[in-house]
Specification:
D-Amino Acid Oxidase, Chain A, domain 2; 13 helices; FAD/NAD(P)-binding domain; alpha/beta; 22 strands; 6-stranded mixed beta sheet
């Protein structure tokens, strides 16, 4: 079996704590793993989550907190719409804020506004409400310069990424889901997960280890070309109250998402962005911002490799700050914005796919989001994974 391993015969066996339903072991406590745990628990199964860290510390807390529903297409759109409902219901149950504020998009060229119009024509005003230049400047604190229009995407959500996933884990634990923190999965095989604290018996194993899938199932990861995508990200304290109430996307964002990329004008927008700012294009920028606690999260760049060294080139941060100053009004960021934090985000990536769903051994189900839409789709992916595993709703 691809990536399967044989466990040592002397390892002790640990049985999940609950005594009803089938035994489900989830490897990984990121959004995908927590979504699978929540859905399996809702369906009445015994759930144990194995996580090598002492809490939720990975991609699920390193991101913008943007549940980017409307720009998705295909399976990602289906998962995103399902995830949206789960974010709202789980936020209410687990006590973390989920703001249904939508997303604003600013168009600074005629081609970008044309692209927005094309998606609006496809999706309709319930998903894409077009704005003129004056309405855009009134809605978001952008420079009055080259703004030709924009849009509001009302289905999108905003959460605090540092609060949401940890709160969900605490709530699940309070509801009877067992968490094995600081416990690494060493091998998975039909009916069992070998961990650094012994063996867990399982009827179904869900591997939601994200980019660390290559540590657990290296053959499968190599087969699909799984790598790590590294990001430059910033949290900036504006000089004055920023007035941004929703996530904000730009042309650099539009060309990254499948729904926009399928529209006729996407090629024109990508070409004019690359020609107008080769340095930003070289960093594979997605210029976007989200408001978080009086600050702005600003990002991001993209670089793909097998590993994710911690060392980051300052030029990536410089490019983002330059683009941010060019986007927002002077009274917000000014010539020298105060950077509160810088960090390297990391997520799993694989060429030509947004998701990796596989069953490398009987009863072992891999669920990995292989692009930067884990917060958007991860909770919706869970039901699909459990259906594939034969765990009825």
């Amino acid at each position: 079996m691809t990536g399967s391993a044989t466990t040592t015969p002397t390892a002790p066996t640990v049985t999940p704590d609950r005594t009803t339903g089938r035994r489900v072991v989830v490897v990984g406590a990121g959004v995908v793993g927590l979504g699978a745990a929540a859905e399996a628990h809702r369906r009445g199964h015994q759930v144990t989550v194995v996580e090598q860290a002492s809490g939720v510390v990975g991609s699920s807390v390193q991101n913008f907190g943007h549940v980017c529903t409307t720009p998705q297409a295909g399976d990602a759109r289906r998962y995103a719409l399902a995830a949206r409902e789960r974010w709202l219901s789980l936020g209410s149950a687990a006590g973390f804020d989920v703001a249904p504020v939508g997303t604003h998009v600013v168009a600074r060229t005629a081609a970008e506004q044309r692209l927005l119009g094309e998606l609006a024509a496809e999706r309709g005003p319930d998903e894409v409400r077009l704005l003129d230049a004056a309405e855009t400047r009134e809605a978001v604190p952008v420079r009055p310069g080259p703004v030709v229009g924009g849009a509001h995407l009302p289905l999108d959500l905003l959460v605090d990424p540092r609060a949401a996933a940890p709160a969900l884990a605490r709530w699940l634990e309070s509801r009877g889901v067992t968490f094995r923190w600081r416990t690494a999965a060493r091998a998975v095989a039909p009916g069992r997960v070998e961990t650094t604290r012994g063996v867990l018996e399982a009827d179904v194993v869900v591997v939601a280890a994200h980019h660390d899938l290559d540590r657990l199932l290296p053959d499968l990861a190599e087969e699909v070309g799984l790598r790590r995508c590294r990001l430059h990200m910033l949290r900036v304290a504006p000089a004055t109250p920023h007035g941004l109430a929703t996530p904000l996307l730009t042309g650099w964002s539009m060309v990254r998402y499948a729904a926009f990329a399928a529209c006729p004008s996407a090629t024109d927008v990508a070409a004019e962005l690359a020609a107008g700012d080769p340095a930003a294009a070289a960093w594979d920028v997605n210029l976007m911002a989200t408001p978080q606690g009086g600050t702005l999260i600003l990002g991001d760049t993209h670089a793909r490799a097998d590993d994710a060294p911690v060392f980051q080139d300052e030029e990536g941060f410089d490019v983002l700050l330059r683009l941010g100053r060019d986007l927002f009004r002077d009274d917000l960021l000014g010539p020298a914005p105060r950077v509160v934090e810088r960090w390297q985000g990391t997520y799993a990536t694989a060429p030509g796919r947004e998701f990796l769903l596989a069953e490398p051994a009987p009863g072992v189900h891999v669920a990995t989001v292989t692009t930067g839409i884990g917060m958007t789709t991860g909770l919706g992916l869970a039901a699909d994974v459990l259906d594939r595993a034969g765990l009825a709703a």
